[in-house]
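User: Continuing from earlier, I have the next pair ready.

Assistant: Great, send them over.

User: Here they are, in order.

Assistant: Folding the first of the pair now:
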Amino acid sequence: MNFADLDPALRPLLDRYLAPDDRARVEPVLTELGALAAGELDRLAAAAETNPPALRAFSPSGDRVDEVVFHPAYQQLVEIGFCRFALAALSHRGVLGWSRPAPHVVKYALSYLFSQAEYGLGCPINMTDSAARVLSMFDPTTFRAEIEALTSTDPEQHATGAMFMTEVDGGTDLARTATVATDHGTHWTLTGRKWFCSNVTADIILTLAQVPGQGEGTRGLGMFLLPRVRPDGTRNSYRVDRLKDKLGTRSMASGEVTLDNAYAQPVGDLTRGIQQMLEMVNHSRVSNVMRSTALMRRSVHEAVTHARQRIVFGRSLFDQPLMRRTLLGLQLDVEAALGVVLEIGDQLEKGDGDDEAARTTARVLTPMAKYSVCKRGRWVTSEAMEVRGGNGYIEDWVNPRLVRDAQLGSIWEGASNVVALDVLRCMRLQGAHRVLADTYRERLTGAEAEVPLVERLSEHWRDLRARGEWLLERGRAEQEMAAGDYTEALCQAVMATVLVEQAAWEAKEGYGRRKALVAEAFLQRLFTPEEIPTAALDALPAIVDGGDPEVVR
């Protein structure tokens, strides 16, 4: 079994988004990682899940050591993710056959395969990647050695990163951050308590602290690098008070940390600490969307496999009409989400190349997709559990782990209401609703012949643009009350557009009409949900497996 081969949407999307040389280079890695994720990685992830890390606060002689003991399976996952497949290094240096950093689309495609087996380690991988990005953007000279370590693939040299930001009172409201920084001339020290620290054993930590005299609220926050080990080789003076007993992501250690005059170095411009940290937060949000998509994809695979094997009333569950409609809906969710993940990756790539419109697009797509896709991930994983029936509720199967892990995507890096308000902020400051409407409506041109209802989608974009203008004319409270629904509507329209655009491209390039049926069914669900998507249901084997729907029929 190979998760890359079983996915009918992944390779055609990469064919369109990647340049030919990048596409050729990633293919053997896709094949290798897809097989590993469906086999060895999955077994290691199950072992790490059932044997969570443990805190060893003191040595036998009573010295404070704050070590976290991991199961060997987790250590193997670390070696595979960080070193063998370089998931944290891909965007920063030439690895896996690239002589330069690989496109973001490559990183997200490979991480999507990895996360179908192991979700928890995706957090340290993303935090390491994001920390290297922030340091490279805002203070590359000072932290050249740290960037080198964060992006290393050498098992003996690589370092992992983390973001210790949440406090007891300062979570969503960062202005309430209570940690205080003190300047000692050659370095700073931090004193305070961080409440939710994932990858608590990280070597290089980025955090926020109040800088005396800098201002009130978020203006007073500076960004600091907190190393696990001081320059003189001694352990830094912070304590891991306890590890969190989490619902999901149990393989990865999250903890509570007390900073006791901990050694730290300022990062970039201290007066722009919050702006620098939000770059890391937004990059992490993309990872949340990608990993929620991976959980959905794994869940759909489990549901389809079960439905084909299970015989009910003399025929397979897969061939029962109502089950077919259930499975089609799940497949639509996965394909729409995967399309938007790679679309964000493509826009990030263009934005990093100084395309201002792409930078604005990626900026709003990120919280928008986090709002919609991570919520949908909770529903899809639960629905797939129900497809399996009673066995799906039993820990012998993967479904409980998928359901537990899926809850986290909507919580980390800003809960749903927070990211919806972030979309509203993008609308106010950058006119993001206009950028999305104008960009994606134009991209529908020429697709009418392949997918019905495209003209309806074009009109829908016009209506969404007008709705955004109307919303910005309302009072602040009314704007905020409408932000969630409007964010969801924007995301559904973007996902529909990406599906339609991909369908038109695949038809033109000779891939057949499979994607057109997916796009048509998605648009039917969006605009005429009372109609039965008969064509897609008839071709469901081709839709879930890939291939020519006409041959399947």
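And the other member of the pair:
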Amino acid sequence: MSKIIFTKGKIYTLDQNHPVVEAVVVENGKIVDLGAHEDMVLQWGRHDAKMVDLQGKMVTPGLIDSHLHLSGVAFQFLDLNLTGVSSKREMLEKIRERASATPPEKWLSGLGFDENLFDDGGIPTIQELDEAAPHCPIFIKRICHHAFLVNSKALEMANYHPSMQVPAGGSIVLDPDTKKPTGLLLESASTLITDRMPEKTYDELKQGLGLAMEHAMKRGLTSVHTNDPRYLGGFEQTYKMFDKLLHQERKGLRCNLLIDYPFLERLKERGMYAGYGNDTLKIGAIKIFADGAFGGRTALLSEPYHDASGEYGEAMHDQETLFQMVKAARDHSMPVAVHTIGDQAVENVLNVLDQFPSVKHRDRIIHVSLLREDLIRRLAQPTLVADIQPRFVVGDFPWVEDRLGKERIQYLYAWKSLLSAGVLCAGGSDAPVEPIDPLLGIHAAITRRHPGETHNGWNEKEKLSIKEALEIFTIGGAFATNEENIKGTLSRGKLADMTVYSNDLFTMHHPDELLHTYVDMTIIGGDIVHQK
């Protein structure tokens, strides 16, 4: 393959040996040289070299989203997408419109609603949902995927009765007066419904997944760490889909697959392990849930919720079960990636991990939303990565202050404190919970406020610099999968993954200029997979 010279750019390598260069030389998908335009053209610009003019634009190492669900993004293309809907009225109207085109008894699936955006009341009642969709069962995931809405038809088709056993860790929310369901289900109670819903076909899911990959690359992402088997019909089908899309259809996006704990045995049977695969598709860590989320007060806290005395949240597993789950992963030399929102959940997980030697790949503590000084110190280990989602600030403030109280807020999304303590941090979106757009994540990291707001940021001492924000979405993502030797910076011998921007983020006069910046080009292994 002939060489490609990407040149005449403002290329921020994030490699301290050569921080800014004008040109990068690529051969066989890797960087063979980089430096000044004239030097690179003189040395490599023979007749067979292809030249790509970057027109003075800013370039960074390819952006990495360290935690998302491509399957959830796929469902945004396949289901009723309520993301960003700003009123209950609009939400019910969208349900009514979709229901009118849905045959009786056929399920109406939706996702993405967030009642905190509504200007006309809270979550729709079961009566309102019944009025909007009287003839078809509906199942709608809240944006956090920890709470769900159903109508009476859905409960009927699930054979609901008051003495029905609800799976551990879940609940059917009842009206305090009538003791009847409100239509709101929390956590694992959703399986009472989903177990009775027909699965989407393999072709439908694969089509949605392909669209999600294309969407990610348009947003400047070159690699993602994605957790999907629970949503794509199990491990076998999930792996088959990714394999076909990436190796046969050559979609381009590099994918590291986090595998849910229930599929660990199947992984062993297949002879797969963390790092199995190639630079395009790799097996990652074993995904475990330690708690829930702030919205439904299911995140596990060490002190009670400020707005619900006596409530501490919910542990998804007791300590012995958590220990056995980590042990099962360790018996296969696998790292774990554990969902921890509350400080008690973080403590519980660290207490278990302390009982095991580390393995080749780093363990990942996902979210680490609420912390304490002692936990920040304990997270600062070379064998641990904190997967953080800057956009959670936008989604959770200001209502989260009521949940936690002013005192604890100083340790909520404490990214600067984590980095200052030497904690390895990787940036992600948790899409579809937050938008897949990494530029919005970077904006949230440096402003700690919603794009439309003008204040100085929630808990502004935890703001990151633009360099720190870019590093968690590049170098940090590479560390999370032990790939820092092949990606994360633009250096000789590393993969030629680059993101090109319409504006120079380092010379912005105001952080909101980010909101008017777009990805001009996404380059994976030297191939231009997206161009504006």
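Worth noting for the second one:
The chain has a mean pLDDT of 96. DSSP finds 19 helices and 24 strands in the chain.
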